[in-house]
Amino acid sequence: MTFVHGSDELLANMVAVRLHLDDSTPDNGPLRIVPNSHRDGTLSPHDIDVLRESSEYAQLTVKKGGVVVMRPLLLHASSKSSIEENRRVLHFLFGPSELPPGLEWRRTV
Questions:
Q1: Domain 8-94 class?
Q2: Residues 63/21, Cβ–Cβ less than 8 Å
Q3: Which of 10, 76, 84, 102 is the 20 to 30 Å CA partner of 41?
């Protein structure tokens, strides 16, 4: 199966929805984000390192049943859990129904 990395224009029109099946706490590996970093487009590994070192990140703790909506270009990472507790998340990605010529979604609803 062939995969491609979408253009910034395509990714800017997508939304990720994360539905939390368990509480996300400071101890069980919550999502960390760099606010507004999606506005910078796709970043090189070097630019990611610079941004991570120079920016304040936000730690997202979410109650069971809670939802986080974010842009895929947002710089994000899950923390490592320091306890034996689940942090299950269903991650849905929504994008435009039409892709550039020659490309198609593998699955759509």
A1: mainly beta
A2: no
A3: 102
Beta pairing partners, 32: 59, 77
85 near 22, Cβ under 8 Å?
yes
Neighbours of 104 (CB within 10 A): 9
Domain spans in the chain, listed from the N-terminal domain onward: 8-94
Q: For CA atoms 61, 64, 70, 72, give the dihedral sign.
A: positive
- The Cα–Cα gap between 59 and 24 comes to 10
Sheet holding 76-78, edge to edge: 58-60, 31-33, 76-78
